[in-house]
Model the fold of this input.
Amino acid sequence: MRNPYDVLGVSKTADTKEIKKAYKQLARKYHPDINDTPGAAEKFKEINGAWEVLGDKKKRKMFDTYGTASFKEGARGPGGNPFDFSGFRGAGAGHGGPNMDDILGSMFGGGGRGTPRVGRDIHVTMEVSPMISFTGGTKQLRIKRSSGIQDTVQVKIQAGVSDGEVLCLKGQGHPPNGGGPCGNLNLRLKIGEHHILRRSGKNLEMELPLTIGESLRGKSLQIPSVTGEIKVTIPPNSNNGTKLRIKGKGVQTVPAGDLVLILRPQLPTGRTEMLEPAIEMFEQEYCVDVRVKLHL
Done:
């Protein structure tokens, strides 16, 4: 038989609030509905016995005064164990003390005896399109219950979710045998790469191909974005790799990220004799060696 203070891990000077908090934490950890490891049931029984003593002012005072001897005559729990009070309805029942059913009910959704079991969680990997991760949206998911019934669950996805992130849908898991609250549905998101958009935090990057003329003269263009088509102006003499930032057209969080355009002038495909004069004219326009800074 162990000292009830040691069982609950509290000091002799602990007040009722501290003792109750320690009891609830340990009861949750070792409750048979949650913990099925060897010895957990006995540990749970010991924890309840300790609470029966320390959760009741009269019993605690007797223990503090006489120690375990105070329960050896006329105050034993069922089975003769002074800390085995599992047959009682709850600590302090009938004299204003906290009721164990109330405490366990607050943790597990029902009374200490006959507490409804919580159903098992469902763990599923759900594929989400990159566009939904950028803008948010909904997705329907078919779930097969332990009963064999298939349900359709509507999943709301917020903009900005990441690959590998887990969404928890409370009460959407398996129902327990005999009734009681359902478990949770845990969805691990699998998000692929977009074919032209690359995510960087809340911002999106997109490479924008240009003709040589557009990069030299500048141009107003209509381009796609996650919120629809937008108009952008390419400044004259835009070099390869020049970046343009479009506010609020990135991932649609609050506030939204930006769209970063990376300009990529493209050379014409195929050379013809007609291009030679133009090439010579381009060469004459270089006033400085383009490799002037290329040294180690």
